Amino acid sequence: MEQARSLRLMLAAAGGALALGGFLALPPGTAMAQQKAIKIGFISTFSGPTAVIGNDMRNSFELALDHLGRKMAGLPVEVIYEDDQQKPEVGKQKTDKLIESDKVDFIVGYIWSNVLLASLKSAVDAKTFLITSNAGPSQLAGELCSPYVFSTSWQNDQTPQAMGLYMNQKGVKTVFLIGPNYAAGRDMLAGVASTFKGQVIGQELTKWPDQLDFSAELSKARAAKPDAIFVFYPGAAGVQFLTQYTQAGLKGQIPLYTAFTIDETTLPRQKDLALGVPGAQQWVNDLPNEQNKRFVADYIKKHTGSRPSFYGAQSYDAGHLINSAVVAVKGDTAKKEDMRKAMVNADFKSVRGNFKYGNNHMPIQNFYLQDVVKDQDGNFVLKTVATIVENDQDRFHDKCPMN
Amino acid sequence: MIYFIEQCLNGVQLGMMLFLLAAGLTLIFGIMDLVNLAHGSLYMVGAYFAATFVGWTDNFLLGVALALVATLIVGMAVEVVAMRRLYGRDHLDHVLGTFGLILFFNELVRLLWGPAGMTLPLPAWLNVAVPLLPGLFYPLYRLVIIAATIAVALFLYVLVMRTRLGMLIRAGASNREMVGALGINIKLLYTLVFGLGAALAGLAGLMQAPILTVQIGMGENILIVAFVVIVIGGIGSIRGAFVASLFVGMVDTIGRAFFPDLLRLILTREAAATAAPALSSMLIYLLMTAVLVLRPEGLFPVSNR
């Protein structure tokens, strides 16, 4: 009896140890710090339906480190990946943890504008450099801009603004806007409305991220009889929207224009539904510069069967931006002002082609029209069709007090 | 007018979906007195099976039928392996145990199918919108969902009210010991009921899959709404679940369709656009609260529980 109990105790202890071990196990690429290492925290979504995006960002960031020889200014690089679960409160918690207990030199990542806005204050207060490699809320470009925050993506409004310009070119007179009800969704719809010269005859915001059935909104759009529908649904929601748009028989009736709804993470599931649906982007996988060719080719070689998305491209750039700062101070990451000055120059080879930073640390860059085509192997891929706008600066930089 | 009819159809279709999920939930809760949070996992499993089998067989109907059988088997296996240990325990134990099953199923699906999710494309003949009235186009597939669910509801009614098996199920719900004493294999009966509930959840999942795509955790949000439905309808009542599903489906859809316009009359355009989605998604919970205040037992309370 006594023996049985101690056996049980021992088993329980072993089980507990195993469980703990599981939780404590560090993700790949995390070596114990030797004397001095560049510490980078990476926050993205690694669980749930949008984990595909987080994985693409991680793969691309790792590839950037590979290309840098996994060293910056001769120092080893340690990356700590954290999952925000697509929730602002979790994102903030993880940001605090990276700053306070891991004491990282840089924080990179952030897919979601609402997660970034929740986490921003922690980083700025701690004077830890934050590189957003996707989210670009309007507040960050304007009144919340900070010397410690840089973007390797765009301000949310810019991409839909480009789409608005393209709709003008196509002679669209009336448009119906649909998007999710969170920081980025509201920016996107405002962005397209700011450049579109015709009339916005309807606008629907849906509950984010849990509303996945858009039947009521699609019926509304059909009843409004617009020339076009503009939509923003990132990640899996983009697959659902396109499916339901087609099922509702709208595909032949009202053309669709998109921002961040069709990309390499969603195309394998959207397939032919995405054919003929235009989108705008600052980076497309076929941009003809050397850095981009190397990035895309090596990504495909390393991750057979998948292609990098713009989320990845921006994260790859973030790796090189950080490297430019670390090299400028020869690895002495205490020299924050010098690092800031180095990053302002955007002195690295971006996969989108070279760009400049505005006063608010947002890129001033080109936006391209992209289209979905079938390549010779029958895969659906994105292709650059035209340049919609050159050297575009976001419309909030005036509100940023930095100069 | 046509727009209103279209929105009503959307509401009915959502209601039908909810009914499939709620029927299984209310059967299991009402008859076996088991709170099953893992019902949403069976919904997800049904969808994954359908996407996989349709891919293998290249035949939509055959794949869906196979998926239904497979979910039934998974459901019965879960009952035998896990649920049996939970009968007669506190409801809190049920919640804890079935919550564990949610985590288990999510991880299992991640291991088997990967994190990316899948799609279940409709065959071309289903992927069209049909004209119902002049100017009113409606997706054929959503009409099929409505029709299939009505057929399932009739089947359930006949099964529970008109067959010997149904009589045993009802008897088992009122007095488990007595039915056992009369020589009925109550364990087998419970396994069957749980399997039936699982198959209904699987059917809901696989019918929703072509609309919503297939992904991990897809059953979790909709399960909450299904619980709202069974609370409104009266726990254990299939008729109640049917009426309440329609009710909730209509309130949710009509709310989403017309509430923002109403709000625009009293608020600025900006404020209305932001507040409307949040407020209209609260409507069904307000409805539930109202029902709980006026009729705490639900609309169709089951007697002698």
DSSP summary: helix tally of chain B = 12
Q: Which shape of chain A, going by the Cα principal axes?
A: globular
What is the makeup of the main sheet of chain B? 2 strands, antiparallel
Can you give the mean pLDDT of chain A? 91
Overall average pLDDT of chain B: 90
Overall number of domains of chain B: 1
User: What is the beta-strand fraction of chain A?
Assistant: 15-25%
Q: Round the Cα radius of gyration of chain B to an integer and report it.
A: 20 Å
* Beta-strand fraction estimate of chain B: under 5%
Brief overview, please?
Chain A is an alpha/beta fold and 403 residues long.
Structure, explained:
- The complex is a heterodimer of chains A (403) and B (305).
- Chain A is an alpha/beta fold and 403 residues long.
- Chain A has 2 domains: 38-154 and 288-364, Rossmann fold; 158-281, 3-Layer(aba) Sandwich (Rossmann fold).
- Helix content of chain A is 40%, strand content 20%.
- In chain A, strands 7, 8, 9, 10, 11, 12, 13 and 14 form an 8-stranded mixed beta sheet that branches. In chain A, strands 2-3-1-4-5-6 form a 6-stranded mixed beta sheet, sandwiched between helices.
- Chain A is globular, with a radius of gyration of 22 Å.
- Chain B has 305 residues and is mostly helical.
- Chain B has one domain.
- Helices cover 76% and strands 3% of the residues of chain B.
- Chain B contains 12 helices and 2 strands, in the order H-H-H-H-E-E-H-H-H-H-H-H-H-H.
- Chain B has a two-stranded antiparallel ribbon with strand order 1-2.
- In chain B, a hairpin with a 2-residue loop joins strand 1 and strand 2 (136-139).
- The mean pLDDT of chain B is 90.
- The chains are: A alpha/beta (403), B mainly alpha (305).
- Chain A binds chain B through residues 47-49, 51-52, 55, 181, 186, 203-207, 210-213, 215-217, 219-220, 222-223, 236, 239-240, 243-244, 246-250, 268-269, 271, and chain B through 2-3, 6-7, 10, 13-14, 115-119, 121-122, 127-129, 137, 139, 141-142, 210-213, 215-218, 221, 253, 256-257, 260, 273-274, 276-278, 281.
